[in-house]
Specification:
The protein has about 350 residues and is an alpha/beta fold. The protein has 13 helices and twelve strands. An eight-stranded parallel β-barrel has the order 1-2-3-4-7-8-9-12, surrounded by five helices. Helix 10 runs parallel beside helix 12.
Length: about 350
């Protein structure tokens, strides 16, 4: 049996001709769009929270990407935050997301990211920038700093919503199941796979909204709503930060065909071992990137791999040098693995 070869993809939140040409120039044929695709701003580019879903704009954005001779690997869906919190406004969000899935099916886009996570690295306290070799900068996380910042209850901070919205883990998990039960039949009919990204940073701290932070909870969610159309946006960085063995997890979820997309980035340190972690360049951390790719091949993964986070390099204000470096590094390893 032939196994599909792994492919490299990059995020794009810009549909400018120059940006799309740059993606082709560095040897990438696949893009991951969002969360900007499908709302009312120029060329379909706006945060779903900032605009009204416009399915015509979705189609326009897809056409522009394809006109640049690029393929679409994944698309981030519109916001379901109110549905996650169990609020009445969530019904309109679910209606929008179901319509969005149908359009992606009509456009033959294979995977949509369903935003079940309640946090991202920039939506919680405890983040700092740290310098590494030669002074390049990347984000780092400290659990101790997070706790000190939470006490301040800064209602003007990006994480203030954690203080405004109160929900127990059981309520949150119940809402996740209800969302999946609503959208999975649409995804199955539309032949679109739905993936979710476990919460990052992977910690449970009082005063923060709960989330899916470890592999046991991921497993529990899969068991609650069985479907071949629900799987993971497997983030090597987030899973390593949690202290879990990422190679074993790739084998666990990969053999069950539950890995739909891979975020491949590197990290130094874990929360259980040192109370935090540092994001680093793809060749500069604890994760054996070559072993990750070998393990993905071992389980027959043939989807896309996205380098996800990049260092800030001197003189590289738009991040193209760091992106090209990461892409070249991954492609070189893939040429050996494949």
């Amino acid at each position: 049996m032939m196994v599909a070869m792994m492919k490299v993809s990059v995020n794009t939140r810009s549909f400018s001709d120059e940006d799309l040409k740059f993606i082709k120039q560095i040897g990438v044929d696949w893009v991951d769009t969002g969360p900007m695709l499908g709302t009312e701003r120029q060329a379909g580019i706006a945060s779903p929270q900032e605009g009204t879903l416009d399915l015509k704009k979705v189609s326009e954005g897809i056409k522009k990407i394809r006109a640049a001779n690029l393929n679409i690997s994944t698309v981030r869906g519109t916001s379901i935050q109110q549905a996650l919190m169990g609020k009445p406004e969530g019904e309109k969000e679910l209606e929008d997301i179901c319509n969005f899935i149908k359009v992606l099916g009509e456009e033959s886009i294979p995977v949509m990211h369903l935003g079940l996570e309640t946090r991202s690295p920039r939506s919680v306290p405890g983040r700092v920038d740290k310098a590494h070799r030669g002074g390049y900068l990347m984000g780092a996380f400290s659990l101790d700093l997070m706790r000190r910042e939470i006490v301040k209850r800064d209602m003007n901070s990006p994480w203030a919503y954690h203080f405004r919205d109160k929900i127990t883990f059981d309520e949150y998990f119940h809402n996740c199941v209800k969302i999946l039960e609503r959208v999975i039949p649409i995804a199955e009919d539309s032949e679109v796979k739905l993936m979710f990204h476990a919460d990052d940073p992977p910690v449970e701290v009082e005063s923060l909204i709960p989330g899916i932070t470890n592999s046991l909870l991921i497993r529990r969610l899969f068991e609650a709503v069985p479907s071949k159309n629900i799987g993971l946006q497997f983030c090597c960085g987030a899973r390593y930060e949690s202290g879990e063995n990422i190679y074993d997890l790739i084998r666990l979820f990969g053999k069950e065909n539950k890995i739909f997309h891979v975020h491949l980035r590197n990290v130094r340190g874990t929360i259980p071992s040192v109370g935090g972690y540092e994001e680093v360049a793809i060749d500069d951390g604890d994760i054996n990137i070559f072993k990750v790719l070998q393990t993905l091949k071992e389980v027959g993964y043939g989807g896309t791999i996205n380098p996800d986070h990049f260092p800030t390099l001197i003189g590289d204000n738009v991040g193209r040098a760091s992106l090209a470096f990461s892409i070249g590094y991954i492609k070189a390893l893939l040429s050996i693995v494949e």
